[in-house]
Design goal:
The complex is a heterodimer of chains A (367) and B (363).
Chain A: E1 2-6, H1 7-18, E2 32-38, E3 41-47, E4 51-58, E5 66-71, H2 72-81, E6 87-93, E7 96-101, E8 104-109, E9 126-131, H3 132-142, E10 157-163, E11 166-172, E12 176-183, E13 192-197, H4 198-207, E14 214-219, E15 223-227, E16 231-236, E17 255-260, H5 261-272, E18 281-287, E19 290-296, E20 302-310, E21 316-321, H6 322-331, E22 336-341, E23 348-351, E24 358-362, E25 365-366
Antiparallel strand pairs in A: 1-6, 2-3, 2-5, 3-4, 4-16, 6-7, 7-8, 9-14, 10-11, 10-13, 11-12, 12-24, 14-15, 15-16, 17-20, 17-22, 18-19, 18-21, 19-20, 22-23, 23-24
Chain B: E1 4-9, H1 12-20, E2 29-32, E3 41-44, H2 46-49, H3 59-65, E4 70-72, H4 76-90, E5 97-101, E6 104-108, H5 119-133, E7 138-143, H6 146-155, E8 161-163, H7 169-174, H8 186-194, H9 200-203, H10 208-215, H11 217-225, E9 242-253, H12 256-275, E10 281-292, E11 297-303, H13 309-323, E12 327-338, E13 346-347, H14 352-362
Parallel strand pairs in B: 2-4, 7-8
Antiparallel strand pairs in B: 1-6, 1-7, 2-3, 5-6, 9-12, 10-11, 10-12
């Protein structure tokens, strides 16, 4: 195998593919990236046995075809530290690979491509295509609410629910929940649910951009595959039952507040400074036209912020983890936020005031 | 596998009385209320036990069994002091301590680094130290869980210890009478006897469903405990305000350089103990305590967010210069803010009912 590629063309797919490779590996070949060349078609593959990413690029000149695996981390570090406009030449010599660029030379160890595991391919139950910006938005709007290392392992991921003409994703850590629904051309008489593991969700989002270029999504009973022109992403699904999220969508909240997103976001950020640094509780005091946010910390210091809001009705005092409110205020893009409350023990519904494709549910903290 | 130690002082109140007045050792004594005021025996020594005197027995009854019984009034302050001394010894070995009463506690030493993690050796050392430093004896039970550790501490009482290794559990529980299971009192034991259940191995003949059908909630407990399974954690209810290590020197430290010399090792011990407290504790102050040769004590503290050797040494110098005389005891410590205690908020769950169902499915 022998080929040349510009640093500029190689660096992005190489970094994205190497992103799934775990630093510590029991199986040596898993810390490697698989390089395959056929004519002018170069493909790079990284895997942790749960998530696999294949990146593809076309070379300016066809090379000598072949395949080999190379230490991922070291290859990334070498390519990244070469000058921007470098041209990099790869030559496989026996069981070493020679990497040359200008007056730099590196000889890297290799392992045979035949040792490289591939995620088994199961027949797809459902396939559909959509603009990649749709998938990107769904993930960006909700990923922050996924649990991290929760014993309820099915929360350490994101629910994808597909039905006729619709793709909905839901993420929750048991205290708050984020949901986003987009119209997507799907043909399915059934409702199909799949839980993507947390790591897969985060890696997938990095592969996508805000363009209308299409991706193909294939769901099988235990895998998901998303293919764009440049990448193929495959992930195992989490085997488990996601909570019945529809049951916790608040209904009948009678206190509707509309406030400036920016003002609320800044007020949350300032009060957060003097909240308990671990438990992050703040008190919200709602009255006609005003939302007051109060935080106290164990050192007996206090922060108070008043925000003018559109509200008239009964007053209410309710506690929240301020981080959860900040997360929502950060991800919403509208000028205003609509908050619907009922009482101090019931969840709050946060959304954009009109045409909202996303809903956020936050459970209060009891005072 | 967990390593749980149950420590239980031998006839605690009576032991304190005998320690403070050795002339009582050979006499039958008890601590309790007077018979004239319908008092009850709290504790009695082993001499009195030979006459059949037991705790919780009316004093008048005890006096009939043993006319020479000397019934002493409670001296709670002394008992409490000894109890606190015991507890501070426990805390040198683990942070996971669940006191059951003044004289009894569970210790979880699963992650303890002492004696290469040998719970048997830790228990031995704790018992030896209590005997030497407090002047009473304690018994210990060592086992993989609380249920068995508690039974084990009773096995070689007084002043003994007993280990049930994980491999020995099945053999040990098989011969265990059912009344050793907590929650099995006279009534329950009689009910079990009707079905010819006398030992834990008799319980093994029944499925968990059969036992739950017959005995309700208690059935599940019988099923698991009779197999030596008990997953209750050692629950720590005490929250700290500070953490310190101190050393009383065999010979007084004569000057400041000698004192400063001792600070690195004390600081290191403090840092090790600090690693064992949970991350809800936030260090806000460092302090140094000095007891001078004239027994006067001075403490000096300063705001800090972590243990720092140079800070402790400068505090030590400042404290020493207050009296400038030989030093008996040197201590270093930190004061905390407890993020958990000072949190007035309780996060509510989204899936409160659902999650328990889901847990069950996952198991």
């Amino acid at each position: 195998m022998k080929f040349a590629v510009s640093r500029e063309a190689l660096i992005k797919p190489l970094q994205l593919v190497a992103g799934v490779v775990e630093r510590r590996q029991t199986l040596p070949v898993l810390s490697n990236v698989l390089i395959q060349l056929q004519g002018d078609q170069l493909s790079l593959t990284g895997t942790d046995l749960e998530v696999e990413i294949v990146g593809r690029l076309t070379l300016e000149q066809p090379g000598q075809s072949g395949e080999i695996t190379v230490p991922a981390r070291k290859l990334v570090d070498i390519c990244r530290s070469l000058p921007d406009s470098s041209n990099i030449e790869f030559t496989l010599e026996e069981n070493r690979i020679l990497v040359k660029s200008g007056r730099s030379r590196f000889t890297l160890s290799t392992l045979p491509a035949s040792d490289f595991p591939n995620v088994e391919d199961t027949p797809g139950n459902l396939r559909f295509s959509c603009a990649q910006q749709e998938v990107k938005r769904l993930i960006e709007r909700t990923a922050f609410a996924m649990a991290q290392q929760d014993v309820r392992y099915y929360l350490n991921g994101m629910l994808w629910e597909v039905r006729q003409d619709q793709l909905r994703v839901v993420a929750t850590d048991g205290h708050r929940m984020a949901m986003c629904t987009r119209a997507v051309a799907v043909n399915s008489s059934d409702v199909i649910q799949a839980i993507l593991p947390r790591k897969g969700v985060l890696e997938l989002s990095r592969l996508l951009d805000d363009s209308t270029a299409q991706v193909e999504v294939v769901l099988s009973s235990n895998h998901i595959r998303v293919t764009s022109i440049d990448y193929t992403f495959t992930s195992k699904l989490v085997d488990g039952k996601f909570p019945e999220y529809e049951r916790v969508l608040p209904r009948g909240g009678n206190k509707v507040i509309i406030g400036s997103r920016l003002e609320l976001k800044q007020a949350f950020a300032r009060t957060a400074i003097l909240s308990n640094e671990k438990y992050r509780g703040v008190r919200l005091l709602l009255s006609d036209g005003t939302l007051t946010i109060v935080a106290n910390n164990p050192e007996q210091e206090e922060a108070e912020e008043q925000v003018t809001v559109d509200y008239s009705g009964d007053s209410l005092e309710v506690g929240f983890n301020v981080s959860y409110l900040q997360d929502v205020a950060n991800v919403i893009s509208n000028e205003n936020i609509k908050i619907t409350l009922s009482d101090a023990n019931s969840s709050a519904l946060l959304e954009e005031p009109e045409n909202s494709d996303s809903l956020y549910v936050v459970m209060p903290m009891r005072l | 596998m967990r390593k749980i130690i149950h420590l239980d002082a031998d006839c605690f109140f009576a032991a304190i009385e005998m320690r403070d007045d050795p002339s009582l050792v050979k006499l039958p004594i008890a601590v309790g209320g007077r018979s004239e005021s319908r008092g009850v025996i709290s504790t009695c020594n082993y001499v009195a036990r030979r006459y059949g005197v037991r705790s919780a027995m009316p004093t008048s009854h005890a006096k009939r069994l043993c006319p020479d019984l000397l019934v002493l009034p409670h001296r709670m302050d002394s008992y409490r002091e000894a109890s606190m001394q015991m507890r501070s010894i426990f805390y040198e070995y683990t942070e996971l301590i669940e006191p059951l009463s003044l004289d009894e506690a569970f210790l979880d030493v699963s992650d303890s680094e002492f004696h290469h993690g040998s719970a048997t050796l830790i228990a031995q050392e704790i018992r030896a130290r209590i005997q030497k430093e407090i002047g009473i004896t304690v018994s210990a039970g060592i086992a993989p869980n609380k249920f068995l550790a508690k039974i084990a501490s009773d096995w070689n009482k007084p002043n003994g210890q007993f280990v049930i290794t994980p491999a020995k559990v099945p053999e040990f529980v098989a011969q265990l009478p059912v009344n050793k299971i907590y929650g099995v009192g006279k009534a329950m034991a009689a009910k079990l006897a009707e079905s010819s259940i006398f030992t834990c191995s008799d319980l093994h003949k029944f499925s968990v469903f059969e036992l739950t059908q017959r005995y309700g909630q208690m059935g599940t407990r019988l099923y698991h405990l009779s197999r030596g399974i008990d997953n209750r954690p050692v629950t720590v209810d005490r929250r700290r305000k500070s953490l310190s290590v101190e050393n009383t020197f065999a010979n007084d430290l004569s000057g400041l350089p000698q004192c400063l010399n001792e600070i690195p090792s004390l600081s290191q011990q403090l840092a090790i103990r600090l690693r064992r407290v949970d991350d809800d504790y936030k260090v806000v102050k460092l302090y140094v305590k000095i007891k001078f040769s004239d027994f006067s004590i001075t403490t000096i503290e300063r705001s800090a967010s972590a243990v720092s050797l140079s800070e402790l040494q400068s505090l030590c110098a400042e404290a020493y210069n207050r009296k400038n005389m030989p030093v008996r005891l040197l201590g270093v410590g930190v004061r905390f803010i407890d993020l958990r205690e000072d949190n007035n908020f309780l996060q509510l769950e989204l899936f409160s009912n659902q999650s328990s169902i889901q847990y069950a499915e996952a198991n």
